Structures are given as C-alpha cells and as structure tokens.
Amino acid sequence: MLSKENLLAALNRVEANRGAPGVDGMTTAELRPWVAVHWPEVRAELDAGTYRPAPVRQVIIPKPGGGERMLGVPRVLDRLIQQAIAQVLVPVFDPGFSGSSFGFRPGRSAHQAVRVARRAVEDGYRWVVDLDLDRFFDRVQHDVLMARVARKVHDRRVLKLVRRYLEAGIMVDGIRMPSEEGTPQGSPLSPVLSNIMLDDLDRELFRRGHRFVRYADDVRVFVRSERAARRVLASVTAVVEQRLKLKVNREKSKVVHARSAVLLGFGFYFTRSGVRIRVDPKALARWKDRIRELSSRRWSVAMDERIARINRYMTGWMGYFQLSDASRPFRDLDEWFRRRMRQIRWKEWKYPRTRRANLRRLGISESFSHQWGNSSKGYWRIAGSAVLQRALPNSYWDDLGLLTLKPTWQRLRSAR
Question: 55, 148, 255, 259: which has the highest count of C-beta atoms within 10 A?
C-alpha cells in the first residue's frame, strides 16, 4: 500500500479528480508540494499505526428525484491515503465479485449493466424487482463491513486504518459529529467498500439462480412472472435486512413490468425486432431543466460563450445517453431547444429598427421584416413563427457550432 509506485499512482489520481478541499482547506494543487515536505512524518504515523484521519466535510446536494444526498469530502491528504488503500484492495476483491455487478469496477460500466438488463428482458424475464436500499451509504454497519474486509485482508494496520476512516466523523458547522455507521459517499474508499458489503447479496442471488444486475446500491432482479417477482422481493428483503443489517425502503421498492422499469437513467421498449433501449423520461426532464438554465433570456452573456457552455453539457449528456435506440425524443427536444435559442437572439436584437435590419439581412422580405420587426408579440411566440424560423434555420445554428441532441446522437452512434 505504501510503495512508491502505488503512492505516486494515487497522487496522480487525486490530482486528476480535483475536487473540493476538505476541512483543512488544502486544494489538490497544494497536495504534492505539501507531501514533498511532510510525507516522512505521515509515513512514520502510518507505520506505527497512530495515524488519525481528519473528519470529512459535509456537503448536501439535492437528489434528481427529490430529497437530499449527503456527501463527505475528505481532506486531500486523506484522499491520497484512501486512494492508495483502494488501489491495493481492488485487485484482491474484484476478481471474486459477481459478473452481474457493474458499479465502480475496472473495465465495467453503466452501459454494460443496461445491455445485460436488456438481454434478460429479451430472454423472457419481463418482470423486474426494483430493490431500493434505504440510505445505503449512511446505514452500513461498521462491524458487518469490517468482517467482510477481514476475510481477505490480514494486515492489522490496514484493517485498523480502514476502520478509522469509517469512524473519522463528519464536520457539521464546525462541530465534529461521530460516525457510528455508514461510509460517506465522496471518498475514494467508498466504492470498493460498497461492493465488498453487497457481494453477499450478489452471491445469494446467484445461488438462487436469478438473473440480476447491480450497480452499486442499484439492484434489479429479472423474473418471468409477477407472482415470482413479488416472492423474490420478499425473500431478498429478508436477506438484506437480516444478514447485511441494512434497510430496504418498502415504499420505493416495487415490482414492475419491464416496459415501466428504469435502470441508470434508461428504460426499455418493445418492437417486432426485439427489446430496445430508451432514455427515461425523468432524465429527459432533467436535461430540459438544465437547458432552461443555459438558455435563459435573463442570463446576459455573449452568444459564443453561451453556446460553448451548452456544448460542454450536451457533449457529456449525450456521451452517456447515446446508448438509447430511440431518436424521436431527441428530435422533439431539439425543436424546443432551437426555439429557445431563437428567442434569445430576438431579445438581443432588442429595438424594432435592429430587428428589421437583421431580418432583411437574413433574407426576409421588406414587408415581413417591417411587420415582425415592429410586432409586440411575446418572445416565445415570435421564436415559433415561420418568419424567424426562416431567418434563423437549423443551418444558422450549425454555422455557429451549436450542438443539438439528434445530430450528436447520430454522430456518436456512427462512431461506435
């Protein structure tokens, strides 16, 4: 764990991930110079088993579906040490993890999880057990987790250090709060520890012969009938609560048909040629909310800067959702999106004389330029008019470099 090669790889990873400072305010840019001076002292404490991690800084972020998620931001030195631990734990534990587990594992991805789920539905397993683990990262019992880590880790110093990270506490309004359970999301150790904790669930599902997919605490079990699905939900709930000492959210856990099931932002639909993947409508709604922010008329920013910001978001969003087989929602959203961009341009022109002049420059006749340039209709109505669509067609926005959903989807799909 403390080899030079492992520590250097961990340092590079922490610097690449950047992230916010912890309770001490040190940034990732300041970490390397600090370590160059102070590492011998830290190393001596680690060797002696006396190193004490600092509490994590609490950050609360809203969940997309409502509610709040608590993240813990460790100080950058602790992120370095945790990353070094994670890098040696992963090769020990990962080869023994289930093939149906995809979250936070090398060489595995959310897209692979969705494809495996689609294959199960294609094979006739069309009823889905959607298992919701209630506040999983907040409820992990330390003794239960450490017992599982100790199955393969026999170095007492490493076990003690992992335990101390679990018990490091949370800093809330300047007051250190003890952490008697849970593993804070946001730490480099959290992903591998979550997979270690839930490996027993994977093994039990495999032993029973179930088709399933797990991505971190997102669990879906695929069965052939609704009756069997309800039976599986009851039995798996018992395993989670009795053996793992976790809690299943009975209000959110449910049995649904595959056409209504959602996994990692994707859903499924049926065609004559088979089962296809679509984007979950909630993910489309979140895209729309973000585009509303980026295309707000109240945001005073140059068009090239606005387009640059939109393009960064569009590239990242579509890089993930390119897996969808359905392009029609993208086409419909593109029409709405371009209309929002046209109303921004209309507002920028501001004065009737400017609007008339720009309409004429863009090929609109004198009479229509005069009529619409002096119109008192609202921005949204003007943006949807045939005149402004002719003046600012799709090619106009293409020339400005604006990315939209369907063309980006087509380009990414053809490159695969």
Answer: 55
Residue 314 has pLDDT above 70, yes or no: yes
pLDDT band at 131 (very low <50, low <70, confident <90, very high): very high
Distances (CA, A) of 141 to 82, 132, 205: 19, 18, 21
Cβ atoms of residues 247 and 134 within 8 Å: yes
Query: Could you write out the three-class secondary structure of the chain?
Result: CCCHHHHHHHHHHHHHHCCCCCCCCCCHHHHHHHHHHHHHHHHHHHHHCCCCCCCEEEEEEECCCCCEEEEEECCHHHHHHHHHHHHHHHHHHHHHCCCCECCCCCCCCHHHHHHHHHHHHHCCCCEEEEEEECCHHHHCEHHHHHHHHCCCCCCHHHHHHHHHHHCCCEEECCEEECCCECCCECCCCHHHHHHHHHHHHHHHHHHCCCEEEEECCEEEEEECCHHHHHHHHHHHHHHHHHHCCCCECCCCCEEEEHHHCCECCEEEEEECCEEEEEECHHHHHHHHHHHHHHCCCCCCCCHHHHHHHHHHHHHHHHHHHCCCCCCHHHHHHHHHHHHHHHHHHHHHHCCHHHHHHHHHHCCCCHHHHHHHHCCCCCHHHHHCCHHHHHHCCHHHHHHCCCCCHHHHHHHHHHHC
The sheet that has 68-73: what strands, in order across it?
68-73, 56-62, 170-172, 175-177
The label of the residue with tokens 């190393």 reads: 43
Give the pLDDT band of residue 67 (cuts 50, 70, 90): low
Question: Would you state the pLDDT for residue 61?
Answer: 74
Nearest-10 crossing angle of helices 303-321, 281-294 = 170
* pLDDT 10s digits, 19-36: 899 999 999 999 999 999
From residue 391, give the alpha-carbon distance in Å to each of 78, 102, 215.
Answer: 57, 48, 47
CA-nearest of 11, 194, 225, 26 to 104 is: 194
Separation of CA 48 from chain center:
38
Per-residue CA distances from 309 to 10, 290, 346, 405 (Å): 31, 11, 20, 15
pTM of the model: 0.89
